Amino acid sequence: MTALHSAWSAVGGDPALLSRVSTVVREGALDARLPVRELARACVGACALAAAELGARRAGLAEVPEVRLDDGAIATAFVSERHLLVDGRAPVTFAPLSRFWRTADGWVRTHANYPHHRARLLAALGVRKEDPEAVGAALAERSAYDVEEDVYAAGGLAVALRTPREWAAHEQAVEVARRPLVEHERHASARARALPPLDGSPLLPAAGVRVLDLTRVIAGPVATRTLALLGADVLRVDAPQLPELPDQHTDTGFGKRSTRLDLRAGRHTHADFGRRSTRLDLVAGRRDFEELLAAADVVVIGYRPGALDRFGLSARALAERCPGLVVAQLSAWGSYGPWGERRGFDSLVQAASGIAATEGSAGHPGALPAQALDHGTGYLLAAAVLRALAERREQGYGRCARLALARTAQWLMNGVEPGPRGDLAYGAPDAWLAERDSGLGRLRYALSPVSFEGGPVDWARPPGVWGVDPARWG
User: Fold this and answer.
1) Strand, coil or helix: what is 207?
2) 63 touches 328 (CB < 8 A)
């Protein structure tokens, strides 16, 4: 079974539709020891085919539009953050303390792009200021596993480098391997909002679909960025006390609007009640969110498992409150096992799962040519949402889909087979880049690799300033 067959099967697709897919194979695209090109192609292919299928159903077409996969477009999009330019300026993708470090017995990978994670890392190591030399010295005196646990206990992010065999023996890896690539759950209640038929050009399969985007970083925002390309009304909601990295938001904000709401109403401190404006903001934020949720078709959640449960935003609670809702959940390690509630990022999953050890050389850990776990899982998450919408249209039931970066890593390591060499070379990415003006400046960016006959080529709107849009549907 090819990787595309596996991905399409994982989202519940009809295998007969795979005949609608063609591929332009390019040598050198996402070149690595592991079959990253094949994984990327499969995830994008499943997403594009799910979009074409939903579009055909809503438009009443006799057959599903043809899907064309191009390794060049896919490879370019999988490193979209590296191609982004804002008024000619390239963003910094990793902070100085986000890297591999030698420890007393091996290597550890830290992630400190966000200020609060950076502060917790430094506190766990007993380092007073952001000094890479001091951090390196502190880590060199400790074992990798001790660092992993100490930093986690402090609320930071650090993972010991493991070989594939070491990871396979870990209890979390055992739990991950037991799960399917995409977990599905059908809600018992129906009464989904009916979506109107489609007409006109381009074919926008998700037109009229309201997506509440509760995601951060890359994987979740890639999924919702893709749904926005396909016509969905995507509103990203962030907490005002958790600011986003501006360039990261720019890269994944195409097609969306962005607002900030404080959901902590009902959880005031004594000090809150001494500040009338704070109290009113909290109440208004929760009220606005509930109004958005009541009219939403899809909720995409990218926070660590359990983080939003106190707000009544678990998949079970959402299904009970909002019949017919499609819920898509994304996590680093899965919502089960000893690491089920841990934070994580692509680079950390690569380090823990054996990918970094496999891609390394001369005793040094390596990395995939892209943050492929993030991007691949993002496109697969979008595919799961599109398929859930297609099935909801026929049956009325809401659904929940769950994906994890660690499960995508397990698939890459153990389930994706290398494909044939290509006759074409992957060279300059210019054919898959575009430029446009925006409120943030002149942007150069990667176009979406999701392509099907009659479908959209570019987003309807550029990204805007983070968190300034009104909290209402467009």
Assistant:
1) coil
2) no
* Residue keyed to tokens 């007409």: 199
Angle at 428 between CA 426 and CA 430, to 5 degrees: 120
In the three-class reduction of DSSP (H, G, I as helix; E, B as strand; rest coil), residue 444 is classed as strand
Name, in order, each residue with C-beta under 8 angstroms of 173's C-beta and a sequence gap of 6 or more: 167, 353, 406, 410
> 119 pLDDT exceeds 80?
yes
Digit-coded pLDDT (tens) for 185-235? 987 766 667 888 998 889 999 999 999 999 998 999 999 999 999 999 999
Residue in the structure block whose two tokens are 């192609």 = 41
Rounded to whole angstroms, the Cα distance separating 86 from 472 reads 28
For 420, residues 6+ apart whose C-beta sits below 8 A from its C-beta are 25
Residue 177, CA atoms < 13 Å, CB-side half-sphere: 14
Predicted confidence (pLDDT) at residue 273 exceeds the cutoff of 60: no
**What are the residues whose beta carbons fall under 8 Å from the beta carbon of 451, sequence distance 6 or more?**
48, 67, 68, 69, 70, 73, 457
Residue owning tokens 């449960």: 309
Could you give phi then psi for residue 214, rounded to 5 degrees? Answer: -110, 60
The reply to whether omega before 202 is within 30° of 0 (cis) is: yes
Per-residue DSSP letter, 461: S
Beta bridge partners of 432: none
Classified as helix, coil or strand, 454 is coil
Give the SS3 label for residue 324. coil
DSSP state of 364: B
CA–CA gap between residue 212 and residue 224 (Å, rounded): 9
Cα 318 from Cα 300, distance rounded (Å): 11
The reply to whether the predicted model has a pTM over 0.85 is yes
Q: Rounded to an integer, what distance in angstroms lies between the CA atom of residue 450 and that of residue 219?
A: 15
Of 473, 453, 470, give the one whose Cα is nearest residue 205.
453
Cβ neighbors of 422 (< 8 A, separation 6 or more) are 24, 25, 26, 27, 29, 71
Cβ atoms 242, 233 nearer than 8 A: no
Pairing relation of β-strands 233-238 and 257-260? parallel
Nearest to 302 by CA among 344, 260, 249: 344
What does the alpha-carbon distance between residue 323 and residue 300 come to, in Å, rounded to a whole number?
16
Q: Are 204 and 55 in contact, with CB atoms under 8 Å apart?
A: yes
Checking if the pLDDT of 103 tops 90, the result is yes
Contacts of 354 (CB under 8 A, 6+ apart): 162, 163, 164, 165, 166, 167, 168, 413
What tokens does 432 get? 């898959």
Q: Is the dihedral of CA 363, 134, 217, 328 positive or negative?
A: positive
Distance CA 14, CA 46 (A): 11
Cβ proximity of 456 and 202 under 8 Å: yes
Going by DSSP bridges, is the β-strand pair 183-186/257-260 parallel, antiparallel, or unpaired? unpaired
